[in-house]
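A note from the maintainers: we've had questions about how concatenated examples are separated. There is no special marker in the raw files; a new sequence line simply starts the next protein. For clarity in this README we add a label.
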Amino acid sequence: MPVFHVFSTVTGLYLFDANSNTFLKIDNNIYKSLIEYKKSHYEYIDKNVQNLINKGFLSHKKDFKMIHPMDETLEDNLSRRLNTIALQVTQNCNLRCKYCAYSGSYLNRVHTNKRMSEKTALKAIDFLLENSVDTNAINIGFYGGEPFLEFDLIEKCVEYAKKAAFGKEIRFNVTTNATLLTDKVLNFVNDNNFHLTISLDGDKEAHDKNRIFAINNNGTFNTIMRSIDKVSKKYPDLSQRINFNAVIDPQSDFSCISSFFSNYENVKDYFVRASMISNNYNPNNVELTEQYNSVFNYETFKLLLYKFGRLNEKDISKLVLASFDNVKKDVHERLKVSFNSAKVDHHSGPCVPGAQRLFVDVDGNLFPCERVSETSMIMKIGDIYSGFDFDKVRDVLNIGRLTEKQCKSCWAFRYCTSCAIAADNGDSFSAEHKLENCNKVKNSIEKIFKDYCVLRELGYDFDEEDIYKKGVLA
């Protein structure tokens, strides 16, 4: 069947023809004709629709098998080209962040006193090395809970990895709440070229609203600021290897958070990656407020003005800068590829489980990444002792089979962001659960489509981005 989507922006009306992977600007008559065409289940073909068909649009895509393109090389990739593991050295934490997946408000996930043994940790490193023979560089991450609660174990892992991985380039990283960064810890991570991702949600009010100490429920902002100040003064080289991860609460003041990361002396020079409070495994759906949407959309508008040289980068919120990369990478680059003749295909979204960031829990079980719930056995894809369970890996990779009929007729097929997490129902994959997420995904994709079409309509050239920077105001 023809698969397409029509939408409007301030610059006009547009058709996205999914089978040809093409955008067309259309007039109001064609727009109405296409709506009627879809309502009639593609039976009512007026002259406007027929004209598009004659030009090669609205074609019927050839049927294909719903198989991920990486399925065929799965064993080879996971057995020879692994490059990253994240070790859950502990399930404990000295904080009880209100939105954290382990703090009791999410399904089946809580903080515990379980910790990874030295035997399991070293075996996990061996597993990475055994399955990375074709890889010259590897990444070993430490994850929790709060990983620095197990600082002694981290020290032993680093010492072991350096010897065992002789001849390979090793990069160490840790995701931390930055409340345990003593001089001993900082000396160690500095000497071993660690990259640190520090959880920091914004100014004191926004951060302390959710990120509190377990022992007394006090906020952690001041403690983190002291740690960052110490790094800036005593470990300038380490400062170059730090970035922030901000989890944005839509009930907080986005403007204040944005201003904090751009202007606060101790943090303004660091890169920040922002994301919303996750709805994955969350029984309480996180809703965006009207005020939040208004401010966020305004900051996005300013970003577009910056791309046309009408504003300076310093005037743009660091929290939205990455969204432009999504427009370029997720739309512009994909438009260069033709997909219509594929014999096997799969909606975008799933990565190769474990290939990007293999997660090893405290017991040595393997999971696709740290975003999935390690309490979900359907997401367990093996262990460090017996290796990968490739049947389960394929179930995760080819999650589109679960909703094959709906996916094949979806205009967002090529731009989908749904992976197996959307279908995870604890002990099984649920088609109903996966489909519940579709409208949110399609709304997000439509927004990126609109941004892309407006930018192109106003003359922006994604292949010649640098030419617009010449016009930036002094």
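[label: protein 2]
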Amino acid sequence: MKKLLLFSFLLFSAFALAACGNNDEENSGSSDSEGNEESEGGEINLYTGRHYDTDQELYDQFTEETGIEVNVIEGKDDELIARMEREGKASEADLLITADAGRLHRAKSDDLLQEVDSEVLNENIPENLRDEENEWFGLTKRARVIVYNEETVNPDDIQNYSDLTKDEWEDKVLIRSSENIYNQSLVASMIAQDGEEAAKEWAQGIVDNMARDPQGGDRDQAKGIAAGEGDVAVMNTYYLGQMLNSEDEEEVEVAEQLGVIFPDQEGNGTHVNISGVGLAASSQNTEEAQKFMEFLTEESAQEQFAEANYEYPVNENVEPTEVLQEWGEFEEQDINLSELGENNGEAIQIMNEVGWK
């Protein structure tokens, strides 16, 4: 009898231990599953025309904080928009980052973007730097300024964009071609503020005073001044910031010869444009994509943007980098940047009519 009781006790203990073991395994499995869900925070596919190492550092930081992987597809801005058009609804794009509000407006007009309802974005980005229907949002700002040869030009002689059309600057103005979106948006802003006739008059005056046929990028206009091909040029601030801090000694030497003028400080203000982001209409990861957009507009990310590429932050709680602060504060054009895209067609037509190559 004692042997039978002992056997029953041992048998019961074995079943109990097995049951506990199964429960432990189930609990362990449940814990692992939850852990995987937290570490596998999803992913987003980012089509971007920005090609900066510091941007990738921000993406990596976002992944570390959220577990959301950022798959980066780089390309030229216009080519990425064309790719999204070809791919249509089948596109795997979740987000588009590109330079110039004109391009963002084009993407919106082609139904490539969708609305984002975010209090964070609305709070971090001023109203004029985001789409009126919340389909794109500014990430960084750059001003389109006048630079000049400090040895040959008195900056008091140039206060406005219109001063570049005066007879005294004949054969002295350097500027990029009419195919450049930055110049198209500059003319588009003039249409928005002063009308088509005034914009056309300005464009004609620029063509009349060009030192040479337009060629190259903004840096090439600066180099043209240093080479004596012209005395004044129009360029974006971040290019000059990059040149001043370049590893190329020639670029530094060129930039150090130039002064900066923020035009129209007593009038319409200096033309400002953006690089910005939009949520792709094809996105299958809208929640993750919105988190990423919001992350890029927070103060810490904005500081890194501004510091790395010499751009102005869109978040007004963040100070510009020291180089930009040295140039001083300035008044910006008071228009919603959506108008740059809305007036792009008219701007191109005007530039073609006046012979801006």
